[in-house]
Amino acid sequence: MIQPEPQSTGLNSLMTDISNGRIKIPQFQREYVWELKAAAQLLDSIAKGFPIGTFIMWETQEELRSIRNIGNHNLPSTPQGHTTQYILDGQQRITSMYTCFKGLSIERDGKIEDFSEIYIDLYAGDDDEIVTVTLDNQTPERYIKVTDLLYGKMSNLLKIYSETSIDKIDKYKERFTSYQFSLVILRNAPIDVATEVFTRLNVGGKTLTLFEIMVAKTYDHTTGFDLSEKYDELLDELGDNYRTIPASTVLQVISCVLKNDCTRKQILKLDKKEFIASWEPVKKAILAAVNYFISYFRIPVSRILPYDALVVPFAYFFYHHNQRPLDEKRFYLEDFFWRSSLSERYSSGVESKLGQDLKRIDQILIGNLPSYDYEVNVTPQRIIEQGEFSTGRSFIKAILALFASFEPKSFADGAKVHIDNAWLQIATSKNYHHFFPKAYLKGKEDEFYINHIANITIVDGFLNKQVIRAKAPSKYMGDFKKRNAQVDDVMKTHLIDLNDFGVWDDDYELFFQKRAEKISEELSRRLIVQAKAI
Questions:
Q1: For residue 210, how many C-alpha atoms fall within 13 Å in the half-sphere facing its CB?
Q2: Does the predicted TM-score (pTM) go above 0.90?
Q3: Could you give the CA distance from residue 199 to residue 196 in angstroms, rounded to a whole number?
Q4: Strand (E) or helix (H) holding 144
Q5: All residues at 6 or more sequence positions from 237 whose CB lies less than 8 Å from its CB, including other chains
Q6: Residue 532 has what pLDDT?
Q7: What does the angle CA 434 – CA 436 – CA 439 come to, to the nearest 5 degrees?
Q8: Beta-strand pair 111-114/73-74
Q9: What single-letter DSSP state applies at residue 260?
Q10: In the chain, which stretches have pLDDT less than 50?
Q11: Distance (Å, rounded) from C-alpha 56 to C-alpha 93?
Q12: What are the tens digits of pLDDT across the range 64-104?
């Protein structure tokens, strides 16, 4: 059991430990936000001998990514062979004291605050405000800067202040330098315990993410490894259309590659050196997986990838298979992708299911078709029953991915439709067009059947909002047919047969049934028929 150790320390010792790099602010702490007035009130409490709360420190030999600067003052690295004390609670107070006692300036929001402009009022009584930022310019000898009080030469002070004021200066200096600050030291606790302590101390404040913890844990000053920067670089390489891949997914990939397990507990236990060594090959595998989604599955943007978690098994595959599969592995991967997506597999219990699926990927890697202990229903009836259009569901995203795989073309001129991540965040996106417009069907059909995946096509925003609007399909498609002789072929890239789906008769019931059947047919073609696993 970890037992915290209560201690006390004086001002000089506390300031020296910060200046020497022994005390650090971990990256997961929020930025310094206290203003000059709040810092002055803290010093006023010290000058009066009031308690200012306990500072809680985590002492460890782990080197974390830390905020190394306070104001404009560069702090050195922790001396070789020494432990570091990371501030878990009291960062705002300690930073305030350091900036005030060192007379630092801090720039925030384009404004510079000079923390040397905090004064002791030598005329104040014990019940008055002793430390202030407001001066009476008529009596300058009434005030002394805190920095001058602590570090000023007495010979210079004697030239300015009366004997009574010098006595006050000595009194307040003694109060500051003799004040005992209360500390609780958490020694050699693992990082997950330290961050849990931080989270509990900051109830109602910031809850640390697993990524923030791992950024702190894996930081390496010697090699310059900074997970936060590496993740940003990865997103830049993924580009705008796949930069929504979350940091948690990247951590899962690394943990699966190293330990075949991606639970939070396992990720926190990952060895720092192994983690850093794995970064470049894992990054390469993630990029290969995303490239495979784009080039083979023809899913151009991450918004219609059914699950971000799909990156994990596919990156795991490419980590162990550093080239594009050209044999039966290609079909087994395709089957795996659609089964996972259409069964809504990762909607719950993601970590355990990823662990199970790594075994399936291991089978694919050696050229075997894995068995599955769950079935996938892609009948027209299921598509009808489960097809209410919502971009938050993997089943719907899988069908949108199917639509995108046909590289849909513009009704107007046959040009490839531009699909953009920024347009696909919500179901009302301008890329999503109800083939039988909602306004046209209003009052004729139930809302469920109007706003249904079987009625959705992916089009250019201008076409949707400015040209089609609320027109009947027979009307607007008739107009397109006059301008585009290839419109019949174009509509097949949307899984719509103009001559067989009741379009020219504006028969929505026939269109709806035929489109559901076509979607079912295409999804079935992507699944390998196999016996149910025993």
A1: 17
A2: no
A3: 5
A4: strand 143-145
A5: 283, 287
A6: 42
A7: 85
A8: unpaired
A9: S
A10: 426-427, 531-534
A11: 12
A12: 776 666 765 778 888 888 899 998 888 899 999 999 999 99
